Amino acid sequence: PAEGTVAFISLPPSLHTSFPPNSSSQVQFQFYGVPELFQVILFHSEEGKVLNTYVVAASVINSEQSIRDMKVPVVVMMHHLITNTHHRDVQCVYWNFIENGGLGGWSPSGCWTHNTTPEYTTCMCDHLTHFGVLLDILRTPIDGKNEKVLTLITYTGCGVSSFFLGVTVLTYSLLEKLRCDYPSQILLNLSFALLGLNLVFLVNSWLSSFGLTALCVAVATIQHYFLLASFIWMLLEAVNMYFAIIKVFNSYVPSYILKFCCIGWGVPLLVCCMVLVVKPDSYGLLPLANSEMFCWVSEDVVFYVCVVGVVGVVLLVNISVFLMVLLQMRRACLSEHSGVMKELRGITSLTLLLGLTWSAAFLTWGDARIPLLYMFSVLNSLQGFLIFVFQCLMKENVRKQWRVHLCFGRFTLQEYSEWSHTPPMINKPKHTPMLTFPTAASVRSNKSNSTQSSSASSQCTEQHFSGKRPDLGVVYQQSFILPR
Questions:
Q1: Potential cystine with 438: which of 395, 408, 430, 442 (Cβ 3.0-4.6 Å)?
Q2: % residues pLDDT > 90 (the chain)
């Protein structure tokens, strides 16, 4: 066939034996340039496969019976709509009009694959009918009805989530006193990573519609980067908690938050660059059930190693760290209403939310696939909103900063002491006292006298601290070090 051919049929010379005697016969060829005409039934009957070619047909007009069981097969070569770069399984099929109660469906009977390349598949069939090639994909599209509902939930939820994540990022970026401790700085980076992930997702399908390979690779790479960054920052949040509570008395880490930023943003960048260098075709187009395309990780090995593997490791490490922290809290006999316990519950809730969200995504197989996809869509939509609730609305110092800045200074932080819930004393001077951290030895000797303290976010006041220990999360040090 000539270059650029999308479909080619070669009929065997023996076909004339099937013509009616003493009459002229005509062979009719039909070409369908709209694959969607055959897609609706396909997704109900052939789970895991998509039609990857145009449909071409051949028939003898005045033949008294259908032509089948030919000794010399018909050769059909068709161009792939989606380049089969990763050599997924293909299947030569024909359209059987009596399948599915007369609605029609694809059947492989009497057809087999002769040869396949990333661009073309050559089929052989022993009968004349409508021919096509199915492409088997592991991340199977879903039927059109559920696709529309899930799309509505996902895009609406991601839009709402992006709004609340944006409010959280702006709050902690513009109000300097809210980000003077390490947990708040980690939260700011995590929120920014999730915001980037949601925004790229919202424009992914639109950008993929341009059909530009370079643009699609860039979009898929950026989305992969923000996904990895989100989970790495969740891991770093757990690591910070471990350093602050488990190793608080004997850990010194210079340039602490700078190193966290190098890990949180550098490791995902390194992974994405390695994928682009080692397997540059790992990012590309993936088909959706409504014939739309989506830019994402198209290579199965890369997907399971660099997405599923990374997420799985992060979740396991986070669960282990939280169990260790809970044991340490229990030994310290902290009240359930202490600031540290509130912080722990908030961080644990966010980790469980992320974990459940992506666990549902990775388990979307078999009969439970559709419910798990709904679960994934709903949980993914709630991430930004719950971060806003836990880290803004439920934090007293954030609400105080809002009152101060949104009310144009009519309130002052001096009226809301972060160190005591008692009313301010009129006769006492209003300057901030100097607080000195005790030494590790004195802490050990007086550990039993340590009492409940305020939450992590309440550390960012205008107080001055003396002592050379770096801030490994002042929130957690308060509960173990600061005397009342």
A1: 442
A2: 18
